[in-house]
Each structure stands twice: as structure tokens, then as C-alpha cells.
Amino acid sequence: MRFMMLLKADRITESGALPSHQDLEVMGKYNEELVKAGVLLDAAGLQPSSKGATVTFQNGKPLVTDGPFAETQELLAGYWVIQVKSKEEAIEWARRAPFDRLPSDGRIAEIELRQMFELTDFPEVPPAVAELEASFNADRTRPK
């Protein structure tokens, strides 16, 4: 099963401040553990919301709002996509995130875990959708 580990934004990540060399090294070691365990599918840090936008749909019509966005507790600073055997294993990987070795400056790091849907979760999948999903999966697992 796949899970997203969603790292919540805070005032520091929203300020656009880049991580230090030491911060990158610490997170790099954690990501390397995920890779060596064979569970990491994807990961990335996200630019602050000031460089983004939201697209909302009112009565089916898109409305674009440029960032920044006021409510940082609802924003994301980064993510990992992991493939694990259980929710408990996903929780264990989130617990191992190295926030104890990164400067906190009074902030509280928060990771939200969300299980991703698999095609098999849906009872009636059109053949074209199944083919497209198989193509995506093949691209994800093909060596670069």
C-alpha cells in the first residue's frame, strides 16, 4: 500500500528560507534510509505558497488566486510517497523523520499520513483507465 507523508508548512518554510547544508545532509540521510529499505517512491520539498496559486471551481468555472496564503497550518512544505505493508509501517517511518536533529526555532514539525487509493479499491474501472494506470506504474518502476 502506498502512503503520502505530508510535511506541513510553517512560518519558516513559508518565508522561503532555504535549508542549511546541515539540514540537507540530515534529511538526505533519512531519505537514503527510505531508499535502502526499498520503500521510497518519490519525495520533494515545495516552494512557499507565495510562488503558487489555488484554482477553485465555483459553479464549474475556475477561479485562480495567487499566493501567498494566510493559513500556514493547512499548507504543505514537502512530501514523501512510500510503499509499505501497513499503516503501522508508514507511521514508523514518519516517526523516524529526523526533526530531532534539525533546528526547530520553536516550531512543531507535523507529518500527516494519508493512504493512497489503488486501482483495486474501485469496483468498476473502465479498461482505458486500467491501461493508463498500468502505463504510469511501468514508468515509475522503469530504471532511469
Task: Pick out its properties.
144 residues; alpha+beta; Alpha-Beta Plaits; 4-stranded antiparallel β-sheet; two-stranded antiparallel ribbon; 4 helices
Describe what this molecule looks like in 3D.
The protein is built from four helices and six strands. It is of the alpha+beta class and 144 residues long. The chain has one domain: Alpha-Beta Plaits. A hairpin with a 2-residue loop joins strand 3 and strand 4. The longest helix is centred in the first third of the chain and has 16 residues, at 21-36.
Question: How are the secondary structure elements laid out?
Answer:
Blueprint: E1 2-8, H1 11-15, H2 21-36, E2 40-45, E3 53-58, E4 61-66, E5 76-83, H3 87-95, E6 111-115, H4 127-141
Antiparallel strand pairs: 1-5, 1-6, 2-5, 3-4
What's the CATH topology name? Alpha-Beta Plaits
Low-pLDDT segments? none
Biggest sheet strand line-up: 2-5-1-6
List the total number of helices.
Answer: 4
CATH class: Alpha Beta
Structural class: alpha+beta
Oligomer category: single chain
Average pLDDT, to the nearest integer?
A: 90
Order of helices and strands: EHHEEEEHEH
The largest sheet, given as strand count, sense and whether it forms a barrel, is: 4 strands, antiparallel
Ends apart, CA distance between termini: 23 Å
Helix content: 25-40%
How many β-strand runs?
6
CATH superfamily, by name, is Dimeric alpha+beta barrel
Query: How much strand?
Result: 25-35%
